[in-house]
Amino acid sequence: MLNRTADTLARATPSRVARKVRGLSDRGVAWLFIAPTMLLLLAINIFPLVWAIGLSFTNYRANRPNEPIKNVGLQNYQRILGDSDIWIAMQTTAHFVLWTIVLQTLIGFALAYLIDRKFRGHAFWTTIILIPMMLSPAVVGNFWRFLYQPQTGLFAYAVSFFTGIPNTSIDMLGSVGAAPWAIVIVDTWMWTPYVMLICLAGLRSIPDYIYEAAEVDRASPWRQFWSITLPMALPFIMLAVLFRGIENFKMFDMVNLLTGGGPGSTTEVASITLKRQAFESWRTGYSSAFAIILFVAVFGLANIYVKALNRVKQR
Asked: How far apart are CA 85 and CA 267, in angstroms?
């Protein structure tokens, strides 16, 4: 009996013996390692969200911590939904999100399609294209702010060279009509490489034998693009649109560095309005309600979009 038990223990792996001694299954061991990280993430993300929800129903001001906190119910939400300035900021945000997504998707997919041809030196050019994405937003903002200077900026000189307009009259950041497009250009320059990488992954995932079969059927390159390349890369394109849409909806650093929301309120996106309400007007309860509305809007739109993405992937 003792010899049989010794043979059984010898055949068992050390990890299985340790688990049996401790009474833990594979799932239990996995949760043992995952639980601390999950608790930390919940503490970092869930607690501020719950705290903000609680503050959104109050008149709390962070610069007056000793004043009694009064529960105002849904009053903050009603004021936000009826505030015309808030709706103007939302329209400005929608303008940025729409145009940056359109430009980044078109240019990013075009670059990915060209690089996927694997021409000579494609690795070098891929690295060059990725450089803007590697830079800090603070560096990019200050760099483009210098380029946009009417007197000394290279952008003004380039526009003046092609149009004949004096460079001193080309003020991209100070013009009401040009300032929104100036930010769109900078964000597109910085994040198009990110979209390109995702689209390139989609193009590289298409098996070669599908193209070989299409060539046997004498399908033209244009037909192959519309019938094979675009449909099979579409889930990756939609994924890139989802990521950039969420990030651009929260756009703050680039706008704050380039224009600060100006001239006037032309480039005042929702995040800039939120910052002013929270840290300039010190309407903490009001700004918390605005933050919750933005969160619900982004979460709801992303949820609808993910369902559409799943339907495309299942085709």
From this structure: 12
pLDDT of residue 19: 46
Distance CA(248)–CA(104), nearest Å, equals 11
Tell me which residue has tokens 């399609």.
113
Do 39 and 31 form a contact (C-beta atoms < 8 A)?
Answer: no
Residue stretches of the chain with pLDDT short of 70: 1-24
Look at the domain 79-313 and name its fold.
MetI-like fold (1.10.3720)
Domain boundaries, the chain: 15-55, 79-313
pTM: 0.84
